[in-house]
Structure formats: structure tokens, C-alpha cells
């Protein structure tokens, strides 16, 4: 189990994480969803002991991450965002080193190495220097090094960035397998689809704060089944807002000179009325995109901006 | 403890897989050592010149004079070559030779008859030291000949018969010279007064080329490898392996200790191979191989820690590289790694011996020549260990205080 309470981390004047609290249980995949720079990696850094929190508490399987760092790190597995491997060494040498760093000994280490190499599909390339691996293979070995010691809590920091679709599917399946085995998995990503399909519960992070948390169903309910209508063209923001205010159930999420984002129920049926109101307000619509309720539309509703990579 | 050896093995595996990264650090000192060996060879670091002699007298006296140039110590510095006068003049004009000595015909007769005579010496202006040595030596010989002529002129003139002297004459002149020397003995060797002369030798004066130059090259190699291996900490940081290590229960102190042990084993191996090669191929005198290898290992490791502290203090990998080079190259220059202290101006050598590598080279040369005793060596090792311990702690603190974040 992983417990984070009122976590705060500042770097000088900048507050990267501001009062974050959540709990992730064993066997659960808990997602931290947010754009780059939202504070996800800083939260992971504080949980893993790489960063010392400015305030708040982090408990990893009952161990305080600051006061009992080594005990917490013994039950913690981390798969970092960057590929953190010795590329001159082989897969076996990397696994032996990282297993050794976790205090594993032979013959258990050898047995576990065989298991994770099989799990990650690298059993045929064990003696080859990692620098000859493809990006996807390196990602899988990066993952294997994080789970070599069978951690109780697994932190994955955007592990699928830059991975080909085939390797991504394999990696996500590996993550699910870890949770099925009873691990508490904390997963950060900025891919909505990935978060939606993988995570049991999610926290949406922006500017170092959790702005929404819950299961996917709970989060969708926050949108009240409203569609997201994205209009591009030429707008006079204030005039457009005033014109749309006369239409029932419309919420303007974003309004600027070239883009309008609206949340409303049954959007397709009400398009003619919207176009007429905007034309009367001197706006010109050139493009329309209608999106069904999703994590992305929720994120836009909550933050007023799109989730960019 | 187990992680310590796993880490050492990992570092060696990395070197085994990419040996060129380490080998390139040795390229400069190796090339320099080979080139200098080719230029100076294995012998003494003594310049050698050529004395051209046009001996137109070709007498016993002229040959005696030339013989003085072929005996030590002049013989080590000068190669005497007899030439015809015209050929000698042409060669010295071309700069081929340190000096040309012309002994005109009639030299012996003039010497024995105590008549004024002139020897001619032409020196090569392109050379500074050797022609002066010839000139000074010749001047001393001429003075000596003058006094010999005055003291034993009568006896010597007895030989001036134009043909081989009979045995009776040789015996009679020998007895006569013996009486002369006996009568002069009280002036030449006053019994009540004895002059004891002690020449305080400059330690570098009698050192061979190998003993002078190779220690410098070895330390240049140590410095460059220390710099290269210290910068590897930045490679680890950029690869993300340091961050990954920091989230394992393995202590960073053990990681750093393992790195130090790895570095020490690299230096020990380098020292063993390098010294064996230098002794076998270049004739480097090594009084104690064990002490020399140990010293190189200790001092190399200390230099590594010194550069590591600098690398860890830098804000970026590039800054670390620049700072490392800014420290290593001047230290190598002034600390006797590029040029031995014996080749430096005295003031620079004095400063250079105070640098960390300069001090280590001085101790190393003493170990090689056997001039250092066990007690002095123990004190030096203890000092080095203390300094290394301080630098280890500083490096560890920097590693723990956010270097990898």
C-alpha cells in the first residue's frame, strides 16, 4: 500500500507539488494523469526517496519514505521515465547488477532473472550489449530491472514514452500482471487512453495539485454526460460568450480569438442554434470537432486547456 | 559488502566492453614516451656532439692531445672525427659538427722547444653548450701542456731525436723524471695539509633518460585516466543509472567505494604493466617494484578523487569536462608530467614540486632510485590516505546532496 498525505515539494520559489494526498492499495493500479510539468515525476521522486519532501508524509508499505528510507526502498520498485541502463552491458549483467543493488543473492537472483527475461520476451538476447537493442526492448529491460526484486509497491513513470505499439501492449500487460500478483502500482502518464484502459483509479494532476480523483466512471460522471464541442475560426471572445449565454446548458470552457471550447448535452442537435448565435455575434466558424465525454474532455473542463504531450 | 564487489565487477565489465574509452586517455603519454625514447634512446640524458679534428702534425703530442677528448667524461659528450682541413671547414660551415680543431704541422716541435704556437678552433654558432665545452677543455689542456713543458721540458726534449728513442735513453729519461717528481712531491702533496673535496651531486644530473622522463609520462597517464574516470560519474548521471541506484537500498557510499576500488585496480594494473615495460624496454631503474606499484596505485587513486570532487561540483557534464581539463592540463604542465622537473627552470620546478602530482612524482622517483626509506614512504602513504579520505567524504556528500537530481 502506498499512502501520500499533504505532500508538498518546493524548489526555491517554485512549488512543484502542492498538498497532494492519495492512497493506493495492493493489487490496484493507481494512475497519475497530467501534462508534462504537472508535477507527476516530482511526486514519484518524493515517494521513491530521490527527493526529500518539503512537507507532508509518504508511506510505502507502512515504511516512512524519509525516516526509514532503506526499508521503504527495499519494498519499492521504480521504472524511471528515462531508460536507466548500462548500455555497454548485457541484459543479464544489468539485471544482475540491479538485483544485487536490491540485496538479492544467488541462486534466487538467477532464477528471478530467468523469469523476468521470459516475462519481457528478452530471453533470446540475454548476452547481447543493450546498446544493440531496439527502443522497445530497452524499455522492456528497463521495466524488468524495476521488478527484478519482486517489489510490493511499483512506481512507473511514463514507461511507454517513445515505445512502438507492440512493445506498449506488452508493457501494459506486464503492468497488469504485477497488479494481479498483488503489487500496488502507481502509474504516471499523459496518455489519456492508456490511463483510461489501464488504471483502476486515477488522479488528474495539474500545477502540482490533484484537481480530480476517482474511478474512470466517477470521473466521467463529473462531466454529467456532456459533449465537448471544439470550434475553430475567428471569434470576438466576449461577444461570443454573451451570445452563447442565451442557449440553455452551454458551458464555455475556453474562448479566445481562434478557438472556442464548449461543454453541453446533445451538442449535435443544437449545432444550428450555436452557429446562428455566433454569426450574430460577428464570429466566423471554420471548423467543428465534437467529442463524446472522456478523460480528455474532463481534463479540459477542469483545467480549461488541452492535455498536450 | 556484496554490492561492493558487484559494483567493481560491473565497472570492469564496462571497461572490458569499451576498452578504447580508457585507452584513449593513455594515447598522449604513450606517444610522447615512444617519441622521446626514439630521440634520446636508452642511455644517459647527456647531449652528444661531434668534434672535427684536422691533425696536420700527426705526432705523439697531437695524438696525446686528442686522446684527452676521447676519455671520460669528455668521451661521453664528444665524438672525435679526424678530417682534412678543407673538408672540416666545409662541414663546420654547414653546421655539421660542434667544433673544428686544426692542429697545424710543427705542433710537437713547438711544444717541446717551448716556442709560441697557435691551435685553431672553429665553433658552430648554432650550438651553445658543446662548443663551449670543447673550448674550455682545450684551454685547460693548453695550460696543462705549458706547465708540463716548464717542469719536464728537458726530459721531454730528449725524445725529440726525429727517430725512435733507444731503450737506454727511455730508461735514463724515466729515472730523471722520477727524480723530478720526487723533488716536487713536497710542493705537490704537502703532507700537513689535505684537501677533502665533496661534490654535492644534483640528483637529476646523473639520472638516465628513462629515469628522468618515464616517471613523468607515467604520471601523465595517471592524471589523464583519473580525469576520464572521474568524468564517468557524469555519464552515469546522464544515463539515469545514478538516479536508479539512489532509489535502491544500496548505500551510495558503497557505490563510491566500489568505484574507488575499481580505479585503484586499474591503476595497479597500469603500474605493473607500465613499469615492467619501462624497465624491460627503456631500462628504467626500479629499486622496488612493489613499492613503486603501490605508490602509483595510491597516488593515482588520490588524483582520481581530487578530479572527481571537481566533476561533482560542476553544474553540467560539459562544465565538468572543461573544469577537469582546466585543472589537469596546468597541473600536468607545471607538476612535472609533460616536462620533467630537471628540464624546467629552477623556479618553476620548485613550484611544480608543490603540486599534488609534482609531489607524487618526486616521491615516485625516490622510490625508483631506492633513495626513500620505509619510514618516509609510510609517512607519505599516510598523508595521501588522509587527503584521500577527506576527498572521499566531500564527494559522497555531494552525491547525496542532490547531484543526481
User: Which series of helices and strands of chain B comes N to C?
Assistant: HHEHHEHEHEHHHHHHHHHH
Low-confidence runs of chain A: none
Query: Going across the major beta sheet of chain B, what is the strand order?
Result: 2-1-3-4
When the domains of chain A are counted, the total is 2
> What's the β-strand tally of chain B?
4
What features would you describe in this structure?
The complex is a heterodimer of chains A (309) and B (405). Chain A is α/β, with parallel strands linked by helices and 309 residues long. Chain A folds into two domains: 2-220, Rossmann fold (3-Layer(aba) Sandwich), CATH 3.40.50.300; 226-292, Alpha-Beta Plaits (2-Layer Sandwich). Chain A has eleven helices and 14 strands. Chain A has helices at 40-48, 69-74, 91-101, 108-119, 135-147, 165-180, 192-198, 216-222, 237-244, 271-280, 295-303; strands at 2-11, 14-24, 29-33, 55-60, 63-64, 76-79, 153-157, 184-189, 201-206, 209-214, 227-234, 251-255, 259-264, 284-291. In chain A, the strands form three sheets. A six-stranded mixed beta sheet of chain A has the order 6-7-8-3-9-10, with helices on both faces. A four-stranded antiparallel beta sheet of chain A has the order 2-1-4-5. In chain A, α3 (91-101) runs parallel beside α5 and α5 packs parallel to α6 (165-180). Chain B has 405 residues and is mainly alpha-helical. Chain B has two domains: 2-43 and 207-403, no CATH class; 49-180, D-Maltodextrin-Binding Protein, domain 2 (3-Layer(aba) Sandwich), CATH 3.40.190.10. Chain B is built from 16 helices and four strands. Chain B has helices at residues 2-17, 20-40, 60-70, 74-77, 85-94, 107-112, 129-157, 167-188, 209-239, 241-246, 252-282, 289-313, 317-334, 346-352, 356-369, 374-403, and strands at 49-55, 78-82, 99-103, 120-123. Chain B has a four-stranded mixed beta sheet with strand order 2-1-3-4, sandwiched between helices. The two termini of chain B are 26 Å apart. Residues 189-206 of chain B have low confidence and may be disordered.
Amino acid at each position: 500500500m502506498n499512502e501520500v498525505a499533504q505532500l508538498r515539494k518546493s524548489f526555491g520559489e517554485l512549488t512543484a507539488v502542492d498538498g497532494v494526498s492519495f492512497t493506493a492499495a495492493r493489487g490496484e493500479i493507481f494512475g497519475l494523469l497530467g501534462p508534462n510539468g504537472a508535477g507527476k515525476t516530482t511526486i514519484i521522486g518524493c515517494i521513491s526517496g530521490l527527493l526529500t519532501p518539503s512537507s507532508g508524509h509518504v508511506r510505502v508499505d507502512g515504511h516512512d519514505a524519509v525516516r526509514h528510507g532503506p526499508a521503504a526502498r527495499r519494498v519499492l520498485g521504480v521504472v524511471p521515465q528515462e531508460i536507466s541502463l548500462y548500455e555497454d552491458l548485457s541484459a543479464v549483467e544489468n539485471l544482475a547488477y540491479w538485483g544485487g543493488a536490491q540485496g538479492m543473492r544467488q541462486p534466487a537472483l538467477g532464477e528471478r532473472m530467468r523469469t523476468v527475461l521470459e516475462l519481457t520476451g528478452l530471453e533470446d538476447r540475454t548476452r547481447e550489449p543493450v546498446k544493440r537493442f531496439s527502443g522497445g526492448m530497452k524499455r522492456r529491460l528497463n521495466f524488468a530491472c524495476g521488478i527484478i526484486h519482486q517489489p510490493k509497491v511499483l512506481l512507473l513513470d511514463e514507461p511507454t514514452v517513445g515505445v512502438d505499439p507492440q512493445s506498449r501492449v506488452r508493457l501494459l500487460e506486464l503492468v497488469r500482471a504485477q497488479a494481479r500478483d498483488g503489487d500496488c502500482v502507481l502509474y504516471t502518464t499523459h496518455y489519456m487512453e492508456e490511463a483510461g484502459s489501464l488504471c483502476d483509479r486515477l488522479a488528474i494532476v495539474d500545477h502540482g495539485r490533484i484537481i480530480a480523483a476517482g474511478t474512470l466512471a466517477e470521473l466521467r460522471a463529473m462531466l454529467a454526460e456532456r459533449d465537448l464541442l471544439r470550434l475553430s475560426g475567428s471569434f470576438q471572445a466576449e461577444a461570443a460568450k454573451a451570445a452563447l449565454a442565451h442557449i440553455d446548458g452551454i458551458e464555455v470552457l475556453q474562448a479566445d480569438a481562434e478557438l472556442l471550447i464548449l461543454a453541453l448535452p446533445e451538442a449535435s442537435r443544437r449545432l444550428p442554434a450555436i452557429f446562428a448565435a455566433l454569426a450574430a455575434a460577428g464570429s466566423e466558424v471554420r471548423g467543428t470537432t465534437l467529442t463524446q465525454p472522456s478523460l480528455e474532455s474532463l481534463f479540459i473542463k477542469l483545467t480549461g486547456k488541452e492535455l498536450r504531450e | 559488502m556484496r554490492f561492493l564487489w558487484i559494483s567493481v565487477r560491473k565497472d570492469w565489465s564496462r571497461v572490458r566492453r569499451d576498452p578504447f574509452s580508457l585507452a584513449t586517455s593513455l594515447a598522449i603519454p604513450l606517444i610522447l614516451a615512444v617519441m622521446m625514447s626514439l630521440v634520446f634512446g636508452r642511455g644517459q640524458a647527456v647531449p652528444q656532439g661531434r668534434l672535427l679534428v684536422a691533425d696536420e702534425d700527426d705526432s705523439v703530442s697531437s695524438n696525446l692531445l686528442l686522446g684527452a677528448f676521447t676519455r671520460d667524461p669528455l668521451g661521453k659528450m664528444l665524438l672525435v672525427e679526424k678530417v682534412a682541413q678543407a673538408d672540416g671547414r666545409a662541414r663546420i660551415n654547414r653546421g655539421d659538427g660542434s667544433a673544428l680543431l686544426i692542429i697545424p704541422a710543427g705542433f710537437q716541435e713547438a711544444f717541446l722547444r717551448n716556442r709560441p704556437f697557435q691551435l685553431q678552433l672553429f665553433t658552430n654558432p648554432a650550438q651553445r653548450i658543446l662548443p663551449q665545452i670543447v673550448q674550455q677543455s682545450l684551454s685547460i689542456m693548453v695550460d696543462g701542456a705549458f706547465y708540463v713543458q716548464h717542469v719536464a721540458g728537458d726530459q721531454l726534449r730528449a725524445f725529440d731525436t726525429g727517430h725512435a728513442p733507444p731503450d737506454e735513453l727511455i730508461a735514463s729519461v724515466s729515472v730523471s723524471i722520477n727524480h723530478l717528481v720526487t723533488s716536487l712531491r713536497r710542493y705537490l702533496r704537502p703532507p700537513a695539509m689535505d684537501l677533502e673535496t665533496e661534490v654535492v651531486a644534483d640528483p637529476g644530473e646523473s639520472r638516465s633518460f628513462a629515469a628522468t622522463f618515464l616517471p613523468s609520462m607515467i604520471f601523465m597517464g595517471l592524471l589523464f585516466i583519473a580525469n576520464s574516470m572521474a568524468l564517468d560519474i557524469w555519464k552515469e548521471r546522464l544515463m539515469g543509472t545514478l538516479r536508479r541506484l539512489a532509489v535502491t537500498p544500496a548505500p551510495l557510499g558503497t557505490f563510491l567505494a566500489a568505484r574507488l576500488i575499481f580505479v585503484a585496480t586499474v591503476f595497479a594494473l597500469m603500474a605493473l604493466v607500465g613499469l615492467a615495460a619501462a624497465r624491460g624496454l627503456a631500462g628504467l631503474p626500479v629499486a622496488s617494484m612493489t613499492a613503486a606499484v603501490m605508490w602509483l596505485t595510491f597516488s593515482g587513486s588520490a588524483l582520481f578523487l581530487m578530479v572527481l570532487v571537481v566533476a561533482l561540483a560542476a553544474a553540467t557534464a560539459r562544465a565538468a569536462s572543461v573544469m577537469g581539463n582546466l585543472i589537469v592540463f596546468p597541473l600536468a604542465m607545471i607538476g612535472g608530467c609533460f616536462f620533467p622537473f630537471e628540464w624546467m627552470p629552477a623556479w618553476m620546478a620548485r613550484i611544480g614540486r608543490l603540486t599534488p602530482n609534482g609531489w607524487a612524482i618526486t616521491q615516485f622517483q625516490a622510490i625508483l632510485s631506492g633513495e626513500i626509506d620505509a619510514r618516509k614512504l609510510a609517512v607519505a602513504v599516510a598523508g595521501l590516505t588522509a587527503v584521500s579520505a577527506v576527498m572521499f567524504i566531500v564527494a559522497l556528500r555531494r552525491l547525496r546532496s542532490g547531484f543526481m537530481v
